[in-house]
C-alpha cells in the first residue's frame, strides 16, 4: 500500500495540555489556515493542528491492530483522515473538534479495513498460493476462453485439487465482514464471533468460510445477505418472503450454530 507519509510527533504529545485549550487552539489554527494567503503559515498551522490531535488518530488506528494489517499503514490512514477532518470542520458549530474528527477517522479506517483486510488471516504459504491461483486463473481464462475450474487449475499448476480449492476459499476471505454489522440480537459486532486475527487459532487455516459452508443453504443465504451484502433485516425479509421477526430468529439460530462449528475447529466464540 502506498500512502502519503506524515511524520507523527512523539506518542501522547500535543501542543495544548487540556481538551478545552486544545479545542480553542485548534479552532484558532483552522481559522488561520482558511484566512491566510501565506503558504508557509498555512502549512505551519496545519502541522500544529494535526500534531495536537495525532494521539487521538493513533489511538483509533490501534483499535484495528492485530487483524492482519500493518500498524504503520493504519496510522497513516488515520492521520490522512485527521487532515480531512481539519479541512472540513465547520467553525460555526459548537461541536468540539475531537468529537467531530473521531467518526471521520473511524470511517476511513473501516473503509481501509474493508478494502484491504482479511476476514481471517491465513498462513503466509496459503496467501502466496492464493495469489498464484488467482493470477493463473486470469491467464488461463484468456487462453481457454472460459473460467478454469479447480481441476484445470490444479493440472496446470501441478497441485492437488484440494490445495487449489483451499486457495480459492482464502481468496473469498479478502472481502471481510462489515465491521459495523452486528449479530442478530444487535448486541455485538459480527467479527466478535471469533477473536481477532492475532489469535493463533486463526492462523491454522481458513475456518470461518468453511464453517459457513456447513450451514443449511437458507442460513448461508441469510448470513451472506446480512454481513456480505449489508442488508437490514427488513430488506432480507422482503427479499426472502419472510417476516422481520422470522429473519431475526433464523439469524440468531444460524449464528449460534456457526459458533458451535467454530468451537469444534478450535476457534472460541467471543
UniProtKB/TrEMBL annotation:
GO BP terms: DNA-templated transcription initiation
Output the SUPFAM superfamilies linked to this UniProt entry: Sigma2 domain of RNA polymerase sigma factors, Sigma3 and sigma4 domains of RNA polymerase sigma factors
Q: Name one Pfam family in it.
A: Sigma70_r4
Region annotated Disordered sits at 1-20
Keywords for the protein's UniProt record, in alphabetical order: DNA-binding, Sigma factor, Transcription, Transcription regulation
Q: Name one GO molecular function term.
A: DNA binding
- Annotated ranges, domain RNA polymerase sigma-70 region: 53-118, 128-186, 211-259
**DNA-binding keyword on record:** yes
* Protein name (Swiss-Prot/TrEMBL): RNA polymerase sigma-28 (SigD/FliA/WhiG) subunit
Organism, scientific name: Terracoccus luteus
Amino acid at each position: 500500500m502506498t500512502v502519503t507519509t506524515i511524520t507523527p510527533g512523539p506518542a501522547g504529545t500535543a501542543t495544548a495540555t487540556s481538551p478545552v485549550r486544545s479545542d480553542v487552539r485548534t479552532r484558532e489554527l483552522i481559522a488561520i489556515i482558511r484566512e491566510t494567503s501565506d503558504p508557509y503559515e498555512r502549512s505551519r498551522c496545519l502541522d500544529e493542528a494535526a500534531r495536537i490531535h495525532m494521539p487521538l488518530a493513533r489511538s483509533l488506528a490501534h483499535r484495528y491492530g492485530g487483524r492482519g494489517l500493518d500498524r504503520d499503514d493504519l496510522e497513516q490512514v488515520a492521520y490522512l483522515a485527521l487532515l480531512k477532518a481539519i479541512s472540513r470542520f465547520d467553525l460555526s458549530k459548537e461541536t468540539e473538534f475531537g468529537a467531530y474528527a473521531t467518526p471521520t477517522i473511524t470511517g476511513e479506517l473501516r473503509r481501509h479495513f474493508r478494502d484491504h483486510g482479511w476476514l481471517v488471516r491465513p498462513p503466509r504459504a496459503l496467501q502466496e498460493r492464493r495469489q498464484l491461483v488467482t493470477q493463473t486463473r486470469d491467464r488461463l481464462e484468456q487462453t481457454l476462453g472460459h473460467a478454469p475450474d479447480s481441476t484445470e487449475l490444479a493440472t496446470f499448476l501441478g497441485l492437488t485439487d484440494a490445495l487449489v480449492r483451499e486457495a480459492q476459499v482464502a481468496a473469498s476471505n479478502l472481502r471481510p465482514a462489515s465491521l459495523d454489522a452486528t449479530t442478530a440480537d444487535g448486541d455485538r459486532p459480527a467479527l466478535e464471533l471469533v477473536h481477532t486475527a492475532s489469535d493463533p487459532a486463526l492462523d491454522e487455516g481458513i475456518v470461518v468460510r468453511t464453517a459457513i459452508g456447513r450451514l443449511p443453504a437458507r442460513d448461508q443465504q441469510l448470513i451472506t445477505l446480512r454481513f456480505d451484502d449489508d442488508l437490514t433485516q427488513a430488506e432480507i425479509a422482503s427479499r426472502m418472503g419472510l417476516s422481520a421477526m422470522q429473519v431475526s430468529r433464523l439469524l440468531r439460530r444460524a449464528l449460534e450454530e456457526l459458533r458451535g462449528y467454530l468451537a469444534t475447529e478450535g476457534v472460541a466464540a467471543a
